[in-house]
């Protein structure tokens, strides 16, 4: 007969339980014992305080204890219940821990571990139909550090541990699984897999760093695209890469590059309006070609050489900049005037086509005048930039260096 449901209690058993409770050792709650009502009342209070309302068994606690395949162990000290564990054995092959709680003030003192050990022993003894030896003080171990837990999950404890692949643990010589089917064995395998991936990533990171260091030693600079921020197209970092005495010139040169973009965009707008007003599609197509060829061409042919020349102080890069920047200034000056050379000059918003269009369509003429003003401002800024760069080029001795390099190159070819 299960002692949990025995109505009559032996006086010696009750005295033994009382002496055990005073020592804070897990004991089984026996129905009909002298302390039944008090212990149940304290456990119900602890249940309400520990678990959320939707997980609490406080309302049906008495019914849970009446089940034939359930039991309860509790720990008390000086007449006060410190914690309890509820367990069940739904079949002869497995058992489960349904509830485990310890008073907040009594946690991290080994009570929870002692309750869990005693419940496991009880579950195993149910299979063997043997009595459960009462736990002693020697069963206490040092309290384990707190671990996160799922209050709604139960732990399935296989009673036939020899039929289940076990994990190496000094406390649980069997595989502990939750109702979701996730086992500690699976957790360990997943941990080992993640560790292997982490080691592989560390190895690749070290290899990449080694290659970057090797490239840096050869003097090759890796230019990472970082401008504009929302869609990086070019590498641009004036504050960190350009010497401070050249930063102003570089900023103004970058402004002229952006100014060229603005001028050509406005040129497209004005020419599009002129086309709508009867100017023909040819001038619009030419304005598109100016933009598509002019913007990337300006960056590659003169802005990037100037940027690299300022960063590395290369005379050759300065020379490349001067050659193509002169053509850039000439184009901007030509666009500001727009003589009737290419398609009557109306593919560019210069002063001459603006004056002509004012007589036929004032709105289009005003758009062309604004575009001509933009090209004039762009031309003036370009002249200032080339003057400043040339002054630095001559003052730093780069002109003489460039002549020496040219002479050396000619001599080497002659030999």
List keywords for this structure.
6 strands, transmembrane, six-stranded antiparallel beta sheet, transmembrane helix, transport, disordered N terminus, coiled coil, acyltransferase activity, transferring groups other than amino-acyl groups, 415 residues, alpha+beta
Descriptive overview:
The protein is of the alpha+beta class and 415 residues long. Helices cover 57% and strands 8% of the residues. It contains twelve helices and six strands. The protein has a six-stranded antiparallel sheet with strand order 1-2-3-4-5-6, sandwiched between helices. The N terminus is likely disordered.
Task: Give the N-to-C terminal Cα separation.
Answer: 114 Å
- Class by SSE composition: alpha+beta
Query: What is the oligomer described by this structure?
Result: single chain
Residue-averaged pLDDT, rounded? 78
Q: What share of residues is helical? A: 55-70%
H/E series: HEHHEEEHEEHHHHHHHH
Membrane topology: Multi-pass membrane protein
Organism: Brassica campestris (Field mustard)
Region (Disordered): 127-148
Coiled coil: 184-214
What does the secondary structure layout of this molecule look like, with pairings?
Elements: H1 11-22, E1 27-28, H2 36-50, H3 61-66, E2 70-77, E3 80-88, E4 94-102, H4 111-128, E5 155-158, E6 177-178, H5 184-217, H6 238-241, H7 247-279, H8 281-312, H9 315-337, H10 351-358, H11 362-395, H12 398-414
Antiparallel strand pairs: 1-2, 2-3, 3-4, 4-5, 5-6
Helix pairs in contact: 7-8, 7-11, 8-9, 9-11, 10-11
GO molecular function: acyltransferase activity, transferring groups other than amino-acyl groups
Coiled coil: 184-214
Function: Probably involved in membrane trafficking.
């Amino acid at each position: 007969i299960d002692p949990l449901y025995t109505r009559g209690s032996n006086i010696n058993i009750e005295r033994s339980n009382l002496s055990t409770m005073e020592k804070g050792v897990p004991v089984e709650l026996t129905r009909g014992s002298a302390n039944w009502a008090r212990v149940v009342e304290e456990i119900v209070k602890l249940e309400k305080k520990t678990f959320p309302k939707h997980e609490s068994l406080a309302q049906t606690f008495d019914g849970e204890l009446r089940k034939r395949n359930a039991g309860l162990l509790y720990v008390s000290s000086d007449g006060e219940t410190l914690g309890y564990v509820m367990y069940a054995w739904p079949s002869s092959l497995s058992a489960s821990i349904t509830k485990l709680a310890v008073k907040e003030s009594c946690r991290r003192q080994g009570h929870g571990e002692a309750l869990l050990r005693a419940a496991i022993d009880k579950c195993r003894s149910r299979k063997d139909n043997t009595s459960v030896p009462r736990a002693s003080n020697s069963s206490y171990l040092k309290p384990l550090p707190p671990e996160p837990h799922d209050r709604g999950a139960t732990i399935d404890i296989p009673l036939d541990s020899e039929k289940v692949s076990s994990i190496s643990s000094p406390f649980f010589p069997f595989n502990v699984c939750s109702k979701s089917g996730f086992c500690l064995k699976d957790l360990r395998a997943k941990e080992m897999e993640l560790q292997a991936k982490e080691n592989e990533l560390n190895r690749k990171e070290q290899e990449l760093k080694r290659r970057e260091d090797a490239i840096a030693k050869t003097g090759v600079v890796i230019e990472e695209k970082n401008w504009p921020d929302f869609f990086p197209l070019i590498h641009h970092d004036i504050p960190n890469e350009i010497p401070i005495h050249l930063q102003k010139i570089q900023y103004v040169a970058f402004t002229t590059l952006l100014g060229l973009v603005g001028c050509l965009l406005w040129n497209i707008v004005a020419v599009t309006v002129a086309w709508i007003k009867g100017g023909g599609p040819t001038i619009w197509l030419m304005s598109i070609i100016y933009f598509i060829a002019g913007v990337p061409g300006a960056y590659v042919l003169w802005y990037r050489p100037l940027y690299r020349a300022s960063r590395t102080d290369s005379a050759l890069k300065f020379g490349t900049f001067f050659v193509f920047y002169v053509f850039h200034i000439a184009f901007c000056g030509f666009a500001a005037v727009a003589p009737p050379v290419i398609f009557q000059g109306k593919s560019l918003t210069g002063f001459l086509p603006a004056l002509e269009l004012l007589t036929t369509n004032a709105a289009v003429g005003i758009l062309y005048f604004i575009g001509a003003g933009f090209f004039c401002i762009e031309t003036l800024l370009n002249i200032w930039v080339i003057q400043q760069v040339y002054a630095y080029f001559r003052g730093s001795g780069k002109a003489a260096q460039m002549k020496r390099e040219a002479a050396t190159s000619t001599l080497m070819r002659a030999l």
